[in-house]
Amino acid sequence: MKELLVFTPLEWLLGGVALGLFVIQLLYWLVSYARPLCKARKQQQPDDSVPMPPVSIVVYAKNESDNLSANLPALLAQEYPEYEVIVVNDGSTDESDNVLKRFEQDYGHLYHTYIPEEAKYLSRKKLALTVGIKAANYDVILFTEANCRPMSKTWVASMARQYTEQTDIVLGYCAYAGHDSFMHRFIAYDNLISGLQMLSSALIRRPFTGNGRNLSYRKSLFFRDGGFSKTLSLHAGDDDLFVNKYADRHNTTVSYGGEGITEMMPVEHFKVWKEMKVSRAATQSHYKGGMLSFYRIESVTFFLFLAAVIVGGLVGLNGNWLLTVLVLLLYLLRYIVKTIVLCKSARLLRQVSPIGEVILFEVFRPLFNQYIRFYRLFRGKNDYTFHLG
User: Fold this and answer.
1) Which residue from 16, 19, 14, 23 is spatially nearest to 337, judged by alpha carbons?
2) 272 CB contacts (<8 Å, ≥6 apart)?
């Protein structure tokens, strides 16, 4: 027994490194990623006596006739006293225009406008959203896309009640609906991690990104600060870069309860989601502040911790097996904590639980994100818009 308690200097070093990285990982998951869970427990019931601002919902659509038919009813049947829905049809060549005209006959608060297919602009989506914002009758604007739908009839109310006199931006979560295949479950896991990073940062007054599938800001903020004028050189960035540039500790809040969540329809092909990731990687390289680096450090420390566990375990097997037991217990405890936080967060955010795949996805996701960054670098400057003559 005395021999088991005696470690060599190398074993002490490996054990100490593993323990230090374990503590760092625990802090990430219990303090940072778990923040929405902690805040949700302390969340107060909304005061229904407070007047609610009128809201304009702006929906971007391009060749989305099927999604418009499926998702518009949920947008148009919201339980909210005064709101309108504006769909911006970006040069669609399918039946989108006919679908919108048919809905307009039954819903007086639905309007639509369009961007001609031949229109030239540095970023067509930013042009479309700018047109929608200009057409909005109200100052509070709520954004989503045609392939998304609110998961409750009080989505508008849940987002709008976050506004105070100081508030200019409200961040919301968009769940991913797919879960039937490995690809869909991985996308759902990736979406959950990204969403927790977005919400947790905003909850500590360090907002750094947003998601245009569930995002709200004031029309007055958009035009006061020049809209998308500072990001026109990029195709994307209408949501995350806008939030990154204009959100601060005073003007931004979040809606993370179950009633304020939208849901994105499953991606049909992996290539489509890959391009979405590439587009996001392009805008992330322009982020200000250090929050994105803060979360990337979590991935780095995880791989260092994993390496320390593997090396410590092997050294222990060839020397003092107690070291092997200790590093494996550290790994198991960290895995249990992370899985509990993710599963409870998934329940809070109405996202499919990743409990069965955490051990695989937590390794695969950082590696895949690194692949996306390298892929973007070597495929050329497709991130950038052309220059108009």
Assistant:
1) 23
2) none
